[in-house]
Amino acid sequence: MIRVLIADDQAMVRAGFAALLASQPDIEVVGDAADGVQAVDRVARLRPDIVLMDVRMPEMDGLAAAKRLLSEESGFRPSVIMLTTFDIDDYIYEALRYGASGFLLKDAPPEDLIAAVRVVAEGEALLAPSVTRRLIAEFARSRPAAPVRSARLAELTERELDVLRLVARGMSNKEIAGALFVSEQTVKTHINRIFAKLGLRDRAQAVVFAYESGLITAGRPD
What we know:
Elements: E1 2-7, H1 11-22, E2 27-33, H2 36-46, E3 50-54, H3 62-69, E4 79-84, H4 90-98, E5 102-105, H5 110-121, H6 129-142, H7 158-168, H8 173-180, H9 184-198, H10 203-212
Parallel strand pairs: 1-2, 1-3, 3-4, 4-5
């Protein structure tokens, strides 16, 4: 069973999401929270696999709550899906840097919410290639200057660097396989090794790392 906690300041939203998810045979809603403080406290007690976290909440907003839950000091680190009413929201990009597994629009179709929970439960990021490309565009606009190249890049092989560059360009595994003339399984293996070496959770963090490490520079083909 996939254990889910829902954090949203609107009771009707919490109830609606809970009813939808609880109707699935592989999903259990273990609790909810009306603000970020409650979310942090209840995650520690209930230990859900996934937290659906609204961005804007009283007491402690979703961004601050996600940062606390995903920090290295956190005793228990669930996967976090940020919920937002806006297609492009500055908070989302910050949440991805903290380690959130992606974002979902609150008015998305019900099947998208169910699929999102399952995708993240399998260890994937909730970022389709098209969404990743928008993340890249936003990140590039906010980071016009070329950063100093990180020494951590030396942990990767040349082929792993090639794969990371293409991931950071928003390419899917299939597209990367075609570009490098290898199988999709080989691409998955390289990506898993990259994540393990760099301590990354998913593609979202990989995009952020590629820019912040200097592997990719905005406006250049690299």
